[in-house]
Please model this.
Amino acid sequence: MEVLLAGMNIDHDVIREAQTGPVSPDRLTPETLSAAYARISRSPLSVPELRRASRNEVEKARKSNRSIVFDMGHSSIAEHAVFNLDVLDISRLAVEAVESFRLCSYTEKSQRYVRLEGGFVLPREIVLAGLEAPFREMIGRQNDLYLKLDEAIREERLRSAGGTAAAAGESAREDARYALSLATETQLGMTLNARNLELMIRRCAAHPLKEVRDFADGLYGAVIGAAPSLVRYVKPTAYDLERVKRLREKAVPQAGEPVERNEREGSDGNAALVAWTADGDEKLVAWLLHSASRLSAADCLKRAAAMSPGEREGLVRAALEDMRAHDAPPRAFEHVELTFELVVSASCFAQLKRHRMATLTTQEYDPGLGATVPPSITEAGMEGPFRDLVADTDALYRRIVEKAPGAAPYILTNAHRKRVLLKVNARELYHMSRLREDRHAQWDIRETTAAMVRLARKALPLTFLLAAGKDRFDGLYRSLFPGKEDGP
Model:
């Protein structure tokens, strides 16, 4: 694994100086910007004057950062320093830990579009457990089947539907990848500020997987020379190290036997709506009224409750009229919340976790939940070999659990599943619906999102009047607003 500093924000006046002559290396840092902005609230000087003072006295700026960010606790000042990093040769499993930090930006190499060449991470835990040979053998089998599936699906799609070889190859890869392990290597570009960077280092340093701890070391090494005054508390605390273990010790005895999902009400396939804002449609009307008036919240609730169903719908329609597919509903929709329990494949989860404004908590991957089989694998006549591979992978997983339980998920495939809890507000679910219910979305996340929206619309029909994928939005809009066929 490599973590490389690719870029950072530097005072523009320093950049202009560098275009005309040499610049001292210590001025090539975002720390001077943080130090200058920290003084805005208490100095009569203009912002350009504060920046000039900081970049001309870098050590003084660093001392100021340490005092203000760490001694006084104004951590938001560190957010003015931003870094771009390359992360190379990291496993798909470790990426899940890295990308769990929501206030950062990531772009990852997509297994949907890039044909993979078999690279994988060999976890140190597997080697120490004496399981390197069977691990390598299983990875080899998974990668071989990936190539066979890629070819079989491509040929089936060319035969049955025609189309270009390029399009068939792209769609084949996105389903063939379900045979690949979570140990498969990937790479990503990452952008984050110093405040989140410090948190990421500390939390990853406490992670049970050595690969993630190695990532923390690499991340620290990549940035500390560029911003020593903004990255300070990187050692994991007792809270970082012990909270998950202690919670598990208390929770497992209380959990009892699992309940079959199919016995639960409010489910749609592998999605279940487990909680939502009580009287959410009525409350949405109240909060829309609140945003457009000078009434108190209590008055708005009373008036919404007294409205007829038609009056409530009229107010929601007024809020959504003239909306187009690229528009978000009013922010009042964020006051309505829904919590879903989902059973998702690793491939589906890789896309679900990108919605970082939602609240997402997860269980570990569980072979007992089965594996997701892409329909194209069945259509290509390859379901038998695929299920055989999954069964053999499960057997090796159980062997690894006995000796290195934390590393066992590395051998599982993109088809393996886990349970997650996803809490979203209605505005965020609109966004997910636009993006993930669209016909261009990958089928696994599209089916999951469609199930969530169906459940949401059943519980809160007014709130989700205009929730649809981009490809269906115009038709739904015309059905709701027939007098506005040409749009706003």
